[in-house]
Amino acid sequence: MPKFSQDDCRRIMDDPTKVRNVVVMGAMGHGKSVTMDNLGAKEGYLAPEKIGDVLFTLYRQDEKDRKTNFKANVCHIATEVEYFERTSEGEDDKFKWKIGSEAKKDKMLFAVVDTPGHVEYSPEYAAATRMCDGAVCVVDVTSGISVGVEYQLLDALKERVKPTLFVSFVDKEILVLEKESEDIYQDLIKVVQNMNVALSVGDKLGLRGFTVSPEDGSVVFGSAYYGWAFSIDYFANMYAKKMKIEPAKMKERVWGDQFYNAAKKTWTKVEVDGSKRGF
């Protein structure tokens, strides 16, 4: 049973600023419904050990049989969230998001829409974007941004829906493909770059700040099936304590061309002997 009641939802709905409609988008087979299972397990819709098997947002019997969406299915989640306020600064090419330093907690209500990934059912996704004010784009790191996802992103931009990015299947890179850390990083950054190329259409629509970046918290990496994910803030805060530097400075080190030499305890912007990428 869900960990919240109808009364909880009613109280939250009295304050519209605490209500969000979010569409989960992505290509077929990239893990949208499994991502929904993680959210459902957190709030009591299913047991954690059933993540990836139940696919509880597949409501129709034919969807359950084929384990894929044919319709845009809505799930309501009332949960306590921790967030940082974000403000914009700069204009045009110098535009960027500035993240607040103090975390805030609040109870919020999410209407999350799990959408079909197959292009044949794209009208379901297009209709869902008109009802939503945010989006989570789930991408398989081993497959990358497909043409279908590019069309989905275009629909989102037309409706002024800002997407965030969840790069999933990182576990496959580690356990199945057995890639080195540098190769994994290159695959991750390729997905982020291709996502921003697709979102660059927003410039023609007069939109600013619609790109994604690990630095501003709009990109998360992880594994939907195994139920774990991280942002660069998580590791920045962890290593900042260990190295006794400011978390904001550490965050600049864990993404991009930043290399650390453990023997000399120095950072460089190019890879030299004895150094490894901060990520």
Structure notes:
By secondary structure, the chain is of the alpha/beta class. The chain has a single domain, classed as P-loop containing nucleotide triphosphate hydrolases (Rossmann fold, 3-Layer(aba) Sandwich), CATH 3.40.50. It is 32% helix and 27% strand. It contains 9 helices and 10 strands. α8 packs across α9. The protein is globular and about 60 Å long. It starts with 5 loop residues before the first helix and ends with a strand. The relative contact order is 0.13.
Indicate the low-confidence ranges by residue numbers.
none
The CATH topology corresponds to Rossmann fold
Residues in helices, as a percent range: 25-40%
Q: Terminal Cα separation, in Å?
A: 39 Å
Strand order of the largest sheet: 2-3-1-4-5-6-7
- Average pLDDT, rounded to a whole number, is 87
At a glance:
With 279 residues, this protein is of the alpha/beta class. It has 9 helices and 10 strands.
Helices and strands in order:
Blueprint: H1 6-13, E1 19-25, H2 32-42, H3 61-66, E2 73-89, E3 96-114, H4 122-129, E4 134-140, H5 147-158, E5 162-168, H6 170-176, H7 181-199, E6 219-223, E7 228-230, H8 232-243, H9 247-253, E8 259-261, E9 266-268, E10 275-277
Parallel strand pairs: 1-3, 1-4, 4-5, 5-6
Antiparallel strand pairs: 2-3, 6-7, 8-9, 8-10
